Amino acid sequence: MRKAKFFQAVAAVMVTAGFLLAFSASAQAKMVPKVDNFILFPDQSGSMYMTHGKLGVVKMVAAKDLLMKMNERIPELGYQGALDLFAPWQVVAEPSVYDRAAFGQALEKIPSDQGIFNRLTPMGPGVSSLDSVLSGLRGKTAVIVVSDGGANKGPDPVAAAQAIHSKYPDVCFHVISFAEEAKAQSILKKISEIGGCGVYAEATDLLADEQALNQFVKDVFYAEEGEPQPEVIVLRGVHFDFDKYDIKPEWQPVLDEGADILKNHPQIRIIIEGHTDSIGTEAYNQKLSERRAKAVYDYFEAKGVEGDRMKTVGYGELQPKADNATAEGRAINRRVEIKVVE
Q1: According to the model, what pLDDT value does residue 260 have?
Q2: Would you call 43 helix, strand, or coil by DSSP?
Q3: GO CC terms for this protein (predicted)?
Q4: CATH architecture of the domain with residue range 32-223
Q5: What pLDDT is recorded for position 79?
Q6: This prediction's pTM
Q7: Is 242 helix (H, G, I), strand (E, B) or coil?
Q8: Using one digit for the tens of pLDDT, what is the confidence trace for 281-316?
Q9: Looking at domain 2-25+236-340, which CATH architecture does it have?
Q10: How far is CA 292 from the centre of its chain?
């Protein structure tokens, strides 16, 4: 009964990258790691070597100072840590078991002074480059983006981050923002909201308030004794080719695992929501989204999940998760989402 009530409490949980099923919370020992890996991911584009209007110092200088202070607060709990820069991509420290002193030496290697002119900001390609690191990691990974949100070259960075999360659903994007413009701030906030697990913080707040910095480190890296930590099972999302609603063979193992979860937890009821990109008429896309939802319903039912535990709904093109102006964004929008309703 208690578990059933807990599922009712998370009825509004929606999964954009696959299943997210939360189970009963349990007390954890003091300073239990929330992640298995983390990647510090500072932006080294030209705009980060310009002076921040409010801070009065070069943004990268302030970023290094902030990261050094954060490093002093990260507990050594056995996770792997890596340091990579983007715009352009540069590996500073390969993933290894986090050691505060060694990581501090790696942070010192971040250039404090670089040229500004002709250094554009390919933020989208930079985010996509994370694939080369994430492919070698296992478990939950925190990616901590440190940026001013400038994006003036290449694909949409939000779509790129969504694509990374769809491929690696155990990734959470956290953001330390040096943005000074509303558009740049919006980009960074959207990245932190992907997957519903990210933490967004203004760099000015973290530099001015030690308590805020401590809280950011805690929110990203660890939990304390007695804090409830929901057990989470995550499966990758199910996406579709253009104008198609058939389940591709590559997604069948994902749905098989989902069916097993549902059969092992018969109290769970779900809504299967179908979505499309914006190509085609609204009426056509509405029907296509309904067929996509029904395809997943039929697959689960064939695997032994009772039909009365599932409902389907189509939203057509009305609820995009990424920019339909790009091929990457449209691919993300051709999807099915699963919502736990009890």
Answers
A1: 87
A2: strand
A3: cell outer membrane
A4: 3-Layer(aba) Sandwich (3.40)
A5: 95
A6: 0.61
A7: coil
A8: 999 999 999 999 999 999 999 999 999 998 898 889
A9: 2-Layer Sandwich (3.30)
A10: 24
